[in-house]
Amino acid sequence: MSATVADVVTALERAYPPEYAEDWDAIGLVCGDPASPVDRVLVCVDPTEDTVSEALELGAGLIVAHHPLLLRGVHGVPADQPKGRLIHRMLLGGVALYCAHTNADSAVPGVSDALAEAIGLRVTGALRPHRGATAETPLLGLGRVGELARPEPFSRFVRRVADALPTTSWGVRASGDPERPIRRVAVSGGAGDGFLSTAAALGVDAYVTSDLRHHPASEHAALSTVPGGRAPALVDVAHWAGEWPWCGQAAEVVRTATQSTVEVHVSQRRTDPWNLHEPGDRSRT
After folding, report:
1. Binding residues for a divalent metal cation
2. In the chain, what are the domain boundaries?
3. Per-residue b/e over 178-195, b at no fewer than 16 CB within 10 Å?
4. Which CATH superfamily is domain 5-104+243-266 in?
5. How large a percentage of the chain has pLDDT more than 90?
6. What's the rounded Cα separation, in Å, for the pair 47 and 231?
7. Once rounded to an integer, what is the mean pLDDT over residues 93-99?
8. pLDDT tens-place string over residues 12-62
9. Residue among 206, 203, 177 nearest 192 (CA)
10. pLDDT at res. 285
11. Which residues are part of a known binding site?
12. Domain 108-237 sits in CATH 3.40.50.11930
């Protein structure tokens, strides 16, 4: 008997309970009939024109995305607007859309577990524990703290991160002493400069996240210049790249729950919005 959209959603919400989502988030089934049969699923970070096209080309009946399509309230979804056009394309093509966002961030395993695993960390705790965390669920929450098998110079660690994630025009940026030994690391998939002070308070050697802003990063780095100050070295990766490892994790959730009767694809299309990078060369002027 074929799996339905509802069957896949049930499996995903067992792995990523909706109650773990932040209050401001918009998760769940966005469009599609829960009773529709589904034999092919596409997992991606972003529901975009590219990933919807990929789903239609694959004949997928469901897209599982990390980022919400309708995070902010809307009053309509007309087809002459970007998000409305996506909704119409999916409905006309028989494609449902399900989004697991901050519930997938806080779950165990979740988005940051996938990032930590890709980098080669042994996870030891949550960066910001969820309000529902207990002694039995110490990893529940946003971000993760973990350890490398052995210390390595920061420059080598930055290369480790770059090698572990898909290539983007943004690349991997870093701030810190290239020779600093790195062993204990905090990671946060997605935008994480709100956790800079948390990472510093935990005394980790490095913090890997995305979308670090100039002033918070500069002020954070300055902590190391005051007597007794010690701030983690910073590694800033492209937002899409830092969350892409989760797609493989979510795909495995669906495969396991459906006993591999559903064909699950992880999108290989880069939906990072930045597509050009020019570091500049003043010697040419």
Report:
1. 66-67, 105, 239, 243
2. 5-104+243-266, 108-237
3. eebebbbbbbbbbebbeb
4. NIF3 (NGG1p interacting factor 3)-like (3.40.1390.30)
5. 86
6. 36
7. 98
8. 999 999 999 999 999 999 999 999 999 999 999 999 999 999 999 999 999
9. 206
10. 52
11. 66-67, 105, 239, 243
12. no
